[in-house]
Backbone:
């Protein structure tokens, strides 16, 4: 991303290393400029793995990237909300579903694309209904054995759902943390183009 003009004073920006730092930044460099530094930081994605009567709620995406593929309700966190509140909001926007957050489930860092994912375990809340939001072509409850892993949209979601099924089989939920390494330019859902490293788990509770 390139910034041409300073958002503080309107003067031209230059790419330079600010005094006392070690990374290149966009720095206000115009005549009489204010020396403002415009930082670009990773984006936070929040979402929920929602259970109801032994099944898991998935949404089929109506927008790019990965239009037509399945994912859990998730999206960018907004200013003014907590990560859990963001997960609940995204679930309502994408699946018209009210949920109860049960516990944190996964935190994945994806350095190559500047994102961090925080996913929660959740259950459907009254009135226990769901339907397609504006960003979803379809919403459906899947039995664990029926989850279409070949049609899951994102590496972070594929990894999370596979670990979720492991936890279901073991009878014990864990909290997961790790780093997902992706090949730049590769399809978001190609399992041959991403790997999970530094995977840590922490036991939360019995099912």
Residues:
């Amino acid at each position: 991303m390139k910034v041409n003009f300073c958002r503080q004073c309107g003067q031209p920006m230059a790419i330079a290393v600010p005094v006392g730092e070690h990374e290149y930044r966009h720095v206000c460099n115009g005549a009489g400029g204010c020396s403002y530094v415009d930082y670009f930081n990773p984006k936070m994605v929040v979402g929920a793995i929602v259970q109801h009567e032994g099944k898991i709620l998935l949404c089929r995406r109506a927008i790019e990237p990965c239009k037509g593929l399945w994912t859990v309700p998730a999206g960018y966190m907004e200013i003014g909300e907590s990560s859990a509140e963001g997960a609940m909001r995204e679930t309502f926007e994408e699946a018209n579903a009210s949920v109860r957050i049960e516990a944190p489930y996964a935190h994945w860092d994806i350095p190559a694309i500047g994102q961090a994912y925080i996913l929660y375990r959740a259950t459907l809340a009254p009135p226990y209904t769901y339907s397609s939001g504006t960003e979803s072509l379809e919403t459906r409850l899947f039995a664990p054995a029926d989850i279409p892993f070949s049609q899951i949209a994102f590496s972070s979601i594929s990894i999370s759902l596979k670990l979720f099924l492991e936890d279901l089989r073991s009878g014990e939920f864990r909290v997961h943390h790790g780093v997902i390494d992706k090949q730049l330019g590769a399809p978001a859902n190609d399992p041959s183009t991403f790997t999970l490293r530094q995977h840590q788990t922490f036991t939360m509770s019995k099912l």
Notes: The longest strand covers residues 194-206.
